[in-house]
Every structure is written in C-alpha cells, then in structure tokens.
From TrEMBL, chains A, B:
GO terms for molecular function: 1,4-alpha-oligoglucan phosphorylase activity; thymidine phosphorylase activity. PANTHER family: THYMIDINE PHOSPHORYLASE. Pfam families: Glycos_trans_3N, Glycos_transf_3, PYNP_C. This is Putative thymidine phosphorylase. NCBIfam families: ARCH_P_rylase, PRK04350.1. Keywords: Glycosyltransferase, Transferase.
Amino acid sequence: MNRPGIHLKLRRIGIDTFKENVAYLHRDCPVYHTEGFQALAKVEVNSVKNHQQVLAVLNVVNDGGIMAIDELGLSEQAFEQLGLKDGNMVCIAHATPPESLDAVHRKIAGECLHASDYLSIIKDVVGNRYSRMEMSAFLVACSESGMEREELLYLTEAMVETGEKLDWGEPLVADKHCIGGIPGNRTTMLVVPIVAAHGMLIPKTSSRAITSPSGTADTMETLARVDLDLKDLHDIVRRERGCLAWGGRAKLAPADDILISVERPLSLDSPGQMVSSILSKKVAAGATHLLIDIPVGPTAKVRRMNDALRLRKLFEYVGDRLGLHLEVVITNGEQPIGRGIGPALEARDVIKVLENDPDAPSDLREKSLRLAGRILEFDPDVRGGQGYAIARDILETGRAMAKMQAIIGAQGVNEEPYVRGALVMEVVAPESGFVVEINNLQMARIARMAGAPMDKGAGVDLLKKMGDKVEAGEVLYLIYAEFPSDFDFAVEQTKKDIGFRIGDNPPAPRYFPPL
Amino acid sequence: MNRPGIHLKLRRIGIDTFKENVAYLHRDCPVYHTEGFQALAKVEVNSVKNHQQVLAVLNVVNDGGIMAIDELGLSEQAFEQLGLKDGNMVCIAHATPPESLDAVHRKIAGECLHASDYLSIIKDVVGNRYSRMEMSAFLVACSESGMEREELLYLTEAMVETGEKLDWGEPLVADKHCIGGIPGNRTTMLVVPIVAAHGMLIPKTSSRAITSPSGTADTMETLARVDLDLKDLHDIVRRERGCLAWGGRAKLAPADDILISVERPLSLDSPGQMVSSILSKKVAAGATHLLIDIPVGPTAKVRRMNDALRLRKLFEYVGDRLGLHLEVVITNGEQPIGRGIGPALEARDVIKVLENDPDAPSDLREKSLRLAGRILEFDPDVRGGQGYAIARDILETGRAMAKMQAIIGAQGVNEEPYVRGALVMEVVAPESGFVVEINNLQMARIARMAGAPMDKGAGVDLLKKMGDKVEAGEVLYLIYAEFPSDFDFAVEQTKKDIGFRIGDNPPAPRYFPPL
C-alpha cells in the first residue's frame, strides 16, 4: 500500500508521550490522503538515507503553528530512538503489524506459547513495535490462569535476554527483594551494611516509590546520593562490597519497565507478572543468590498464607530454572514495620538501629537481622542456623554502622540533614483498649497525602503498634507535613479512617514460619 | 491528592488523536510538579465555573511554541467534548479510575459479569472514561471462550441503551446484514429496491469499506449521495420505503465504534464481538426483522460449516432475547460474488442485474433474489416459500430498477458517471484446466492495492469463476487502476499469487442449505 518516494522533513515535536511513540502528520500533507493513513494507525518512519527506522502511532495535526505540511513530527522519545536530526529527510509508511502478534492471538485463544514465541514478543516490545493496546492485550491474555509456569520461565528469560546484563566477576552476588506493600519496612538499608561488612558482595539497586509513601531509594536519598552511573556503581561496590543505589540508570530488563507502564494504570498485578518482573531484573543485575520476602497480612499485598505459598513455589520454580540460588521467606505483614513512614522518618529508624539505640524500633531490627542472617548463610562457610548470630554481632559491634557510613561516603553524603515537616498533628485513640489492627493501606495513604515521598520530611510516625494498651485520648501517631494543603488533605483522610482499630482484648498472635 | 484551586487557561491543540482524548500540560507548569502528574496518566479536566468535565490521557509538552506554561491543552475531540472556549479557566486533577474497571478485573479473573456490570462498563466507555489500554484489557478478557452467551446479551443491550435509537413508527422494519469477507457480493443494493418495491420498510444504512476493497456505502456512492443527515434519511424512507445510505451520521450504539477502534488494530474479531456489534447497531437503527448472511468458504471469514452453525445460534440466542425477528442464512462463500471488485465495477454489476441484462452475473442475481425472498416472507401476507417468486417478479418486471432510480433520485444522483481506471492489466491462466479455487483474500488484496475503495474506478474484474474451463494464456481477470504507483503495486502482488488455482478436474460442488 506504500507509494515510496514521498519525502518529509523530520521535526522534533516537544511532546513527551512517555513509553508510547507518536508521529505527527499535518492533515493537509499529501501523504496523509494518498496513503489513506488514519489517526491512531501504526506507521513506520524511515530515514531516506540509511536504515534507521522507528515505529509510532499517528496523530493528525490541524494546526500549522505546530508543524508544516511538508514535515513529519516525532514525539521526544521517538525522535531520540530514530537518532536523526531536525530537517533530515524521512518517509512514512503503514507499519506492518509485528509478526509476534500472531503468538499473542494464540495466547488469547488459550494456547500455551513456546520459548521462541515469548522471545519474539518481548523483542518486539523492546523494539517499540507494540502499541499500549497491544501490550494490554498480551498482558491480559497472560494474566491470572492464563500462563503455565513453564511459560513464565520463558517470559522471564526473554526479558533478561533483551536487555543488558551486569557481570560482577564473582561467584556469589547476593541480593534481596521484598514484594512490598508494608509501610516502613526499610530492612534493605540494614541488611546491605551487615552483609557487606561480612564481606559478601551485595550491589543493591532499588526503585523509588511508585504507589507507596517511600521506596528504599527515596529513604536512602535523605542520607546519600543514589543516582549513580554504572561506573560509579561498580567502583563503589568493588571498594565497599555493597551499595544502596537507585536502579533506574542501568538498562536492565527494559521490557519490564515497558510492560509495567501498562500494568500499573491497568492495576494488573498477577503473581506471574510479579515473578517475571522481579526475577528478570535480578538476573540482569548479575545476582546469583537471592532472598525474596513475602509479607502476609490482611492489608498486605498477599493476604492469605495459601497465596503466599503458591507465590513462593512460583518464585522457586522459575528461580531454580534460571540458575539462581533463591530462597523465599514469608514474613508477618499485618502492620507497618518500624515507626516512621516517609523518607526522613524511616531513615531516622534505620540510623537508630545502626546506632544500637535502645529506643530503635525492635521489629525493624529483628526482621533485618533475620533477613541478613539468611543471606549470610548463602556463604558456604557459614553453618546453617548461624547467620542470625553473625548478623547480630556485626550490628552490635558497630561494624554495620561503620559500613553504612562508608557506603554513604562513597555514594556522596547528603549534606542537608533531613528534617521532619514543620506541621504536626496528633492522632489519638478514640477509646481505651488494645491496638488490634493497623491498616497498612490506610497508613500509607495518610503518609502520601501528607506529601511523602516527594516531601522528604512528610509522613507518619507511629507511637503505638499492635498489642499496645492505650487510653482514650492517648496519641497513636503523629502526622508530619511540609505544606498546609497536604497537611489538610492528610488530616481530612484520618477523619474517614484513622487506620487503627482498638479492641477490648489484645490481638491473637499469628504464627509465621521462623526465618 | 488534589490541591484544588490552580487554574489554567484552556487551549485547543490542533491535534486529532482519534478516539482517544489527550490533554497537554507544559513541563514547567507548576501543577505538573506539585501534583506529581505523569505522562500517560489519566486526568480529568474540569471547568472552573460549572460542572463540565472531560477525561483525557496526559502528554507533557516541552515546547513553549505549542502552548504556554499557564495553559491546559486539549486534543480536538476532547476540546469538543468539554464544550468550553479557548481561554476559559479550567483545573486539572488526577482522574479516579472508572469504577467499572473493578468488573473488568473480575472478568479477567474469569468471572461471569451481571447485566449491571456491562451497563456500567459500556457507560464508562461511551463517557470516554476508558483508555485504549483499558478497553483492550476488557475486550481480551471478553474474547474467545471468555463470555457466556447470556453475558453477550447483556453487553449488546448495554451498547443499545447507551446510544440513540431510531423509531420508524411501523411494526415491521426490515434489515439485512452480511458478516462480510466476500469480494463483490453487493446483494444489498438489489435486496433493498426489491423489498422496498414490495412496500416493506427497509431503511438500510451501511458502512464504508474498512479492510475490504468496497463497502455498500462506497459502491452506492458511485451512483448517489450516501452521506445523509437523519432528517433526509427519514424523509426518503417515508417516501420510497427504503434507502441505501451511509450509517456514519447517526449516533447509534456509539460504544460499538469506540470498541471497534480498539478491536481493529488488535485484529480481535471473536464471534461474540461480531454478534454484539451487529445486533446493537441494528436494534438501535430500529430494525424489527433482520436477515443475517453468513458466507462460508475456505477463504471466507467463517471457514467451516460447524463454526457457521455456532455463530448462527449465537445470533439467534441474542436476537431472540432482544425481541428481534431474526433469521440467519448460511451461504456459499468459496469465491467472490459477481464479477467486479471495487466500487464502480460492483455498481456496474448491480445495474446489469436491475436492467435484466442477460450478461448480468447470475450468482449475484440469484443470491440477491434468494435473500430478498427470505425478507419478503417476513410479511405475514406472504406464504412461506413464495418470497423468491415475488422477488423475481419484482426484478423481471422492472419495478426493482424503477425503485432503485427513485431512491437514487431521492438521495441525490451522482452526476459524474463512474469510470473504470485507465490503467488495465490482463492476468492470464498459467496453464489449461478448470478454475478450482479463487482466493477471496488475495482478490481483495489485489483490488485494494489497485486503489479500491478510494479510487472508485480501481479494482478487479473477474472474467472466469470457479468451474470454468480455461486455456493456458486465457484471461482470468483484469486489474484496473487510476494511478501508476497503485497499478505497479497490484501487478507486483499478482506475481506473488494470482489468487486463482487451475486443476485438471472441475471442483466438487459444495452443499449449502437452500435459502
């Protein structure tokens, strides 16, 4: 259907369309009519001189102020990908649908796909040949009951293969990952210095908060620079045996970021998608030994022990086949871990634990020691069951703190000390009794309303935890905010639900397998 | 998460983003930062003064030439929907996801949905509260095995309820529909004048070609104006008892067009989606009696008799529950119907049949009479089995031609006579024997390459049909084109596959139930 030879002048259009490439064509451009293009159609834009090509969705421009009739516009990302200059000559053609869409249709029809199908789908995704609509179709076809665990392995392998891979040149590269959903819970910032102080390599990269009040990268950023390039990352890890960096710089498993950009707005988060997302990133980051933390609780991501066990088996199946040494721990996720929720407040908790401050939150300390202990036992020289004691020793002798300071120094200390927001509100117990429930979701919501993670000092500080006895009017937690409008929103939110439930009797303890 | 009160100046951005609303915000706009908006996020744009609101996907603009920092841009359709003027004050907020997405997630998880679920989903779709990604998720979850036929009924009802509905004020309003896929096959242009000449009301609206070389509206347009507004349509139908118009003007079952804008690029065409799309449009158009034509053949849309029967039952189930008098006929779709493929060539065939020209294609004549006969039997005064004879009588006495001329006159005769493309190429038999196969898909492809349906005179003219005896070198068909580049593409395409297969023996006749 193409008439070759109609050349247009390339123009960068200053519009950021995120992960979707958009091409802009003027309505009066002759090509628009003779070729029968339609808005939203997929087109390929080719360099006239060489083989550079980019795929994009077409938008039709009616306004000569945006672009001229003889121009072909590209959104920011598409322009970068094509790699040409403003004014270079290009031509435009109907894009043939990616061949791998055939496999997607087989998946929609309920078939199992082969490893080669997943590889070709993911290659096309990374090559920007899929529209968001098409990715949505693929993800929904793969979600829930749609995928055999063997297929999950193929998908994960394809996601690793289509990106870069870090190589640390050592046989044991440790990593940890929590599936998330529990406010506070900054165990990574304690596990890394403990494990690195032991001498085990743990080059930890973390994400920023997406829907939570703080990610490890946000909290660490109150203490040190986290936006490291790959060279700095390597240097620091070689010197200190560990780091606590933001992972956004490396192009590891790029398919994951693209698929997440569709999964998130759709709220698609099937167990399979979680497993392939986490494991592909970890394998690409060069991890050989991995500890996965699955918190379970009524307001956690995973709510029933059965679901946690099923998820654990999925992680184990795929992890083993990928050649990872993978362990999964199921932990108590019935309430926030630590006291602070929000970057600066969480950093304060971490520092208190490292300083062996008797006032440090004991749940954060204990969980971190247990997790660090399990990782230390990846070391063949550590006897099974001894990891916890070693971790505790590293913490209590101050070696963990010293290592944390070294890592902070190496990454670049944040000279501006963190401050809690100046606006404070006390939330008190409406009646006397015992704290029988703290809602993770509601506490996270209140902290976000207060401004976390963007305002580092904003968030929630818990003074009471589950099982504590309280008198009516006693303070349960404090809300900190930096801006009045945020503060008002957070306070408003507590009026709907304070996130705590008070009962006449202490809550029954839940049993969790020992770590 | 909203800070109310930051007002922006509305600006129409001259970009047509088709069925997806897009809002444009300058990267340096204060709202962009304080509110934590992300490109591709869904936002709601609200009038500051009243309750007008529109939902859109956010694009971020880096170029002050496109819009200013204190402005909020909307793409063409979104601007129209909001109904405000350039410069009016608006504010922008994170859109809450449509509540009906919850039902979509239940569908993805494999649940059956209730009538109220489908209604709320389709209301949100029509209200532009769904992104294309979300529609894709819904459609894939509903496709293939995903839907009970009861659910299909709910979906169809929801699509009817969320649009306008025509009322012809008569107890018998006939309509026909072919599921498509067979080139030529312009029976509608014969059925309508025959049925209308009998006095039965048949207000036929048709679509233009989407992926085929011509739709009924394209072919009719070579003879008469088809782009009628609703008032003209009513006047003409009241006077002539029938019409042959383009259906794009009325807002009937608008959800259908929106869903199709996602189904088409995804090549999603499950039987359920076909049934709900066709029946919702017909019920909204006020039809009470409907004949559905399902052609079956190795290169038709439906390839096996079993699939045709399954589809027929689906049509019957939903049609009966909607209160339609619905009949389904399964017809021979193993080759094109008539000789011409392309608007002007097909119109020529139709006129020849109406003129009772002995040279008229007999398959087109016969099929049209059979279909018209079945529709005439919707008339309680027509005895079962007599419809065909009545239809033949109407055709042979010239009353069908007279009615067609009256309809053309009423709609507005096209004064420019159609002309076949000036460029002609003969495609000849590579060997002697019998024509044992004509590939519908390949013939359609060649006709489209030649320029159909945009170039009215372009297309293919078949001189041989299945069963015909041919000598090597004898002409099988002619290709007509208006432009040299199209012509070259079409000729190139025949080199890959001429679309005909020649065998030593005539093809075995296939049995089809009599109409």
